[in-house]
């Protein structure tokens, strides 16, 4: 058996380096890779499940066309390409290129994803999307304040004396982060978690502050008030590096411990206790997650939290940082964030865009031309984008839909033609990470199974079928051979002589620009060149208050339970849940409910109930969970609707205040007895 270096290309903090054991063109095992200092102990259970996933008999291996609702029949690639090329020409000629919708999401990362955009540009454009389901409110809140999204290397957490994990659940979503957290604890550090749920990450913490969901901004401002009041601030750091401190100081005056206690539903004394920890223990690493920014106030909430790191001077030092997103490995223009999320920032042929958060609603609103044909790759919008029923309605209103997929997902079930998608072992590509600092190669280790073709090859065939300009094709779409792909990837590496394809084949590499402790030079690329607690740009771009503030959520729905739909331990969103090895842990979707909320409705543990609101209803099994706050229910996202309940059946589709993210947790539901 041969062991080959590779990396996991899922949309996940960890982005583990791995070694793949291969024999007879088959993936046999996944092993740890010791060259990645952030992920030395090897991947999670999902990483290990790749062996089943790569060899699964449920994989889609051939092009298929729909012959009746829910029924598909194998067709040849010739027929698939002919049919699709014909449809593309027809809609473009009769309704213009914007009658085509190109939808891609985060199912597979890599530089080659840019080839898809190249194709649609050569086609003359298409309707695309703006915004992002994941993290943009927090990215933007951070960018406005610090000027860039980068943080200390993951292993630096070991040097912290106080670690505050706020709206993140690393024990499930970034398991390797628990390694330096534990090391720091062994050296005497205190570890605090702030989350409406008692998560597995909270099990090892010194304390959990279980606040009311969506109120973090108020807590942060209340803490800042106490820290300023007690003079625990870093005067020197503020004087040299911070713009707007005096105004911020005025702003927090209103957030007395009593007021904050009332908003966040934790005691005033615990607010004082937490303020003292944050104010007096140095260095502090604050680890905000993406959970607390999935609200309509997510951008402002992020700015409130970040202010705590700023006024205590916990930026740009060993053991001290704001650990939100580390985009240091995103060195290639194609991967630059977050500018690419803004509408109008791309080629004019992509000027027509719909919001990721409001996908269904926006698609249905499109006129002149209406959306006639949809192309989906690397995404599962029927489960992952908000408001499944609206998304389904929009998909069904279009005439024709192509889905490139590995498995029969909810979205694949909407396709007229399904094309078999590659997996991570079947094509080499360069990937970055938003947590560890490495540039990595996800390496081709086997030939594609069945008749699978990577997207790059599908586009190559389509481009020729559509008789696009040969010169343009050769500039924009790699030849479908291993050598063609390598040649294409090498072009990207040219400006970075320190990173070579040969080196990447052995393991992760660092760009020359890599900084172990960013911002230690106190250079902040904001308009004022300082950390901006006061940001004119926040107002100009997003209509937000230039100062961080707590903005209460609008709850105008007649449903009493606020539903959180965080990520789950054993899946990456809608991936992996279909595998046997994963099903043994999560055979079906569970709704986690506080026993008192269930009892009040006469509902027993393990009972199947109806979950409903204005957006949808579904039957789901209740699990009592004393770790859930009274008034919250939890349904992790990524379950497939075809199996019963999926969280986005209930989300409305609301954008965050900044960055065009999705306010998934702005969702209220109710449950009642009886299976419908
Ligand atoms: N309610 C709720 N919804 C959420 C969230 C939440 O917190 N709550 N979180 C959101 C977040 S953070 C994210 S990042 C999104 C993720 O949303 P998506 O990116 O849509 O989700 P995934 O399930 O990771 O991947 C989508 C599909 O890509 C396919 N795929 C994998 N590799 C390839 C490939 O090489 N080619 C092609 N064509 N397909 C491939 C997989 O089989 C999978 O079906 O979900 C969001 N949805
Ligand atoms: N196993 C696994 N790992 C993953 C993923 C996965 O699907 N599965 N997805 C990857 C991706 S794309 C992403 S975006 C990341 C996300 O990973 P995380 O940053 O951990 O984000 P979430 O899981 O969405 O939510 C984290 C926590 O926020 C809490 N939360 C919800 N509302 C609030 C609130 O109002 N205040 C506070 N303080 N906390 C709140 C939730 O209860 C949850 O415990 O994980 C990545 N890693
Ligand atoms: Mo995400």
In short:
By secondary structure, the chain is an alpha/beta fold.
Q: How would you describe the overall organization of this protein?
A:
With 676 residues, this protein is α/β, with parallel strands linked by helices. Among the domains are: 63-131 and 343-415, Rossmann fold; 136-327 and 522-542, Dimethylsulfoxide Reductase, domain 2, CATH 3.40.228; 561-673, Barwin-like endoglucanases (Beta Barrel), CATH 2.40.40. The chain contains 23 helices and 26 strands. The strands form seven sheets. Strands 5-4-17-16-15-6 form a six-stranded mixed beta sheet, covered by helices on one side. Strands 21-25-22-24-23-26 form a six-stranded mixed beta barrel. A hairpin with a 4-residue loop joins strand 23 (608-612) and strand 24 (617-624). Helix 14 (359-365) runs parallel beside helix 16. It is globular and about 75 Å long. The structure holds ligand MGD (2 copies) and molybdenum atom. One ligand MGD binds at residues 11-13, 134-135, 166-169, 172-174, 194-197, 199, 213-214, 216, 289-292, 564, 566-569, 571-573, 665.
């Amino acid at each position: 058996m041969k062991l080959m270096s590779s990396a996991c290309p899922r949309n996940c903090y960890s982005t583990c380096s791995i070694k793949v054991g291969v024999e007879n063109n088959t993936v046999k095992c996944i092993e740890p890779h010791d060259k990645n200092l952030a992920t030395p102990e090897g991947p999670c259970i999902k990483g290990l499940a790749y062996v089943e996933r790569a060899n699964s008999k449920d994989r889609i291996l051939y092009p298929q066309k729909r012959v009746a609702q829910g029924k598909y029949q194998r067709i040849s690639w010739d027929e698939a390409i002919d049919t699709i090329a014909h449809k593309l020409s027809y809609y473009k000629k009769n309704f213009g290129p914007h009658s085509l919708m190109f939808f891609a999401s985060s199912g597979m990362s890599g530089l080659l994803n840019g080839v898809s955009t190249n194709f649609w540009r050569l086609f003359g454009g298409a309707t695309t999307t703006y915004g992002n389901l994941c993290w943009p409110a927090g990215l933007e809140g951070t960018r406005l304040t610090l000027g860039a999204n980068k943080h200390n290397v993951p292993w630096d957490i070991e040097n912290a004396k106080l670690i505050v994990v706020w709206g993140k659940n690393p024990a499930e979503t970034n398991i390797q982060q628990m390694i330096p957290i534990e090391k720091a604890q062994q050296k005497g550090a205190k570890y605090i978690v702030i989350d409406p749920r008692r998560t597995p990450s909270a099990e090892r913490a010194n304390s959990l502050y279980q606040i009311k969901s969506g109120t973090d901004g108020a807590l942060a401002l209340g803490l800042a008030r106490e820290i300023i009041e007690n003079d625990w601030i870093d005067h020197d750091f503020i004087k040299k590096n911070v713009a707007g401190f005096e105004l911020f100081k005025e702003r927090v005056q209103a957030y007395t411990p009593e007021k904050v206690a009332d908003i966040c539903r934790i005691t005033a004394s615990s607010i004082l206790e937490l303020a003292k920890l944050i104010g007096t223990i140095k260095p502090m690493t604050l680890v905000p997650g993406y959970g607390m920014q999935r609200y309509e106030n997510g951008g402002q909430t992020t700015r409130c939290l970040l202010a705590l790191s700023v006024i205590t001077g916990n930026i740009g030092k060993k053991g001290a940082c704001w650990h939100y997103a580390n985009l240091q490995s995103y060195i290639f223009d194609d991967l630059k964030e977050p500018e690419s999320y803004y509408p109008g920032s791309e080629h004019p042929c992509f000027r027509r865009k719909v919001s990721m958060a409001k996908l269904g609603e926006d698609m249905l609103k499109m006129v002149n031309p209406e959306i006639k044909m949809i192309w989906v790759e690397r995404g599962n919008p029927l489960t992952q984008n908000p408001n499944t029923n609206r998304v389904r309605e929009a998909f069904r209103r279009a005439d024709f839909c192509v889905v490139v997929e590995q498995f029969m997902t909810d979205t694949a079930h909407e396709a007229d033609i399904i094309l078999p998608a590659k997996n991570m072992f079947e094509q080499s590509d360069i990937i970055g990470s938003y947590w560890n600092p490495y540039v990595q190669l996800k390496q081709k280790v086997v030939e594609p199974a069945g008749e699978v073709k990577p997207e790059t090859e599908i586009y190559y065939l389509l481009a020729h079928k559509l008789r696009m300009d040969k010169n343009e094709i050769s500039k924009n779409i790699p030849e479908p051979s291993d050598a063609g792909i390598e040649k294409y990837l090498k072009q990207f590496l040219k400006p970075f002589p320190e990173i070579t394809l040969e080196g990447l084949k052995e393991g992760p590499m660092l760009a020359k620009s890599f900084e172990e402790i960013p911002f230690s030079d106190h250079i902040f690329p904001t308009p004022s060149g300082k950390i901006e607690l006061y940001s004119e740009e926040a107002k100009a771009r997003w209509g937000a208050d230039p100062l961080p503030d707590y903005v209460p959520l609008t709850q105008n729905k007649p449903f009493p339970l606020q539903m959180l739909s965080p990520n789950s331990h054993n899946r990456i969103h809608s991936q992996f849940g279909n595998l046997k090895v994963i099903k043994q842990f999560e055979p079906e979707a569970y709704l986690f409910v506080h026993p008192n909320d269930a009892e009040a409705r006469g509902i027993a543990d393990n009972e199947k109930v109806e979950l409903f609101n204005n957006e949808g209803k579904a039957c789901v099994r209740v699990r009592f969970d004393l770790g859930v706050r009274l008034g919250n229910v939890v349904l992790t996202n990524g379950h497939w609707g075809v199996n019963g309940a999926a969280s986005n059946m209930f989300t409305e589709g609301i954008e965050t205040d900044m960055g065009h993210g999705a306010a998934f947790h702005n969702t209220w539901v109710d449950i009642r007895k009886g299976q419908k």
